[in-house]
Amino acid sequence: MKHTQKPSIAIIGTGFAGLGMAIRLKQAGLDSFTLYEQAERIGGTWRDNSYPGAACDVPSHLYSFSFEPNPRWTRHFAPQAEILDYLEHCTDKYGLRPHIRFNSPVRSARFDEDASEWVLTIGEGEEVRAHLVISGCGALSRPSLPEIPGLANFQGKLFHSARWDPGHALEGKTVAIIGTGASATQIVPRIAPRVKQLHLFQRTPPWVLPKEDRLLGPRERKLYAALPAMQWLHRQIIYWKYEGRLPLFFSRLPLARLFEWRALRWLARSIPDAGLRAKLTPNYAMGCKRVLLSDDYYPALLRPNVELVTEPIQTVTRDGLLTADGKARPVDTLILATGFQAAEAVSPFPIQGRGGLRLEEAWRTSAEAYLGTTVAGVPNFFFLVGPNTLLGHSSMVFMIESQVQYVLDCIQTLRRGGFETLEVRESAQARFNQRLLERLGRTVWSTGGCASWYKTRTGKNTTLWPGSTVEFRWRTRQLEPGDYHLEK
Ligand code: N01
């Protein structure tokens, strides 16, 4: 039997991407798929990031599948536990659980050219074969640990923000947090009232805008449940509001200055002390790094038990941190809110394509794909949230749904034409990436005067999409056959 009559499909990961793909496959009548999940429950980043205060920074009604609106969101910006519940609900409602293999980390993938099949190594070495592979491993799933001298010598409790230890009580402890990105700015307000003393180590101040979070009361929830059209309208309004932030990334536009003015006004209102305010004032263009939304971060820094440390960390000692000015701060707990390996080492595990091509090598310094989804030399393999598909301004679920639609169209093209393999042409991929590079060069991510997780050490932006989500949706609505080699 030809693979294309009933393609066996391996989906890796059960976050928004993996689950969204599985649902759409099922709806299309393609149910011979298996989801491989490394952990013992679904959820991806919303399972892993369970730190106090973890929540979305895109409004809940937009940060959900378009086909599965959720009138039960209790806040404008959903907290982590509610998003995880939503994903569990989708898993059950669409009957995905029998398709999931838990505790099954994929270690490697190799394309068997003779059989036109992928061989995946799972867990301790088990091999499984699949005609098509779809990676939904996420771009922000591997914690980045800082290279600070002495870190390994620390004798207290140490963990990364994405590996929060719920059993470790912080009450009455002296705690240090390294980093002031999206994770830290959510953690600080929650733990500051519980700890004895909090030292927050900031290397670069973030731009912070008020989040304007609010409860969605029972009346509003009832309204959305009774009138789905109202919920749809609400989603549209949020969508266009967030899409309207796109000009922020094109630094020559005055709108960007307006956002900066708003953030500085929020800072001035929140922090009366001029010295502290100076430390918190960014010295690079807004949008160059992720813009943070928070109502309670600045107020938390005013607490008497919170110290913002801007002196560089020199070393971590057995019992604390030593800064460049020679000051030692003993701590019980050290939390690394130091982000993720996103721009480099993008390949989630070793992937060997045609002719022995090793993707993790090819991508080591410069990951690239076509529409962030397919890669020359790697047939029948699809990346969800692949290179240059992340956003600085709107909902990743929207981008994921665009990619899922594109992958589905690729699979349908294979089946309809009775093809065994589909592989993007090198020329199409090169053209696409050349244009991407030119566009990225004109954005604030290139010109804004900051370092960020968006870029590799050499300064190449391998993570962000430099256009609107509407453009991405339009370009991924269907496959252009001329861009692909299709083989029977
Ligand atoms: O990580 P980050 P994050 N010494 O990379 C500092 C998403 N997210 O986990 O700026 C000292 O942003 C580093 O300093 P600097 C969101 O897309 C979303 O906070 O490099 N400091 C920085 O301050 C986000 O952008 C939500 O100078 C060191 C911090 O650590 C992405 O995840 C919530 C250091 C790292 O910040 C990552 O956010 C959370 C060192 N050696 C995350 N190394 C939502 O709201 C690093 N730092 C949905």
Q: What would your notes on this structure say?
A:
30% of the residues lie in helices and 17% in strands. The protein is an alpha/beta fold and 488 residues long. It folds into two domains: 9-142 and 341-487, FAD/NAD(P)-binding domain, CATH 3.50.50.60; 157-212 and 247-336, FAD/NAD(P)-binding domain, CATH 3.50.50.60. The chain has a five-stranded parallel sheet with strand order 3-2-1-7-19, covered by helices on one side. It has a five-stranded parallel sheet with strand order 8-17-9-10-13, with no helix packed on it. A four-stranded mixed sheet has the order 6-5-4-18, with no helix packed on it. The model has no long low-confidence stretch (mean pLDDT 94). 3-acetylpyridine adenine dinucleotide is lined by residues 56-57, 140, 146, 148, 161, 178-184, 186, 201, 203-204, 290, 313, 337-340, 451, 453.
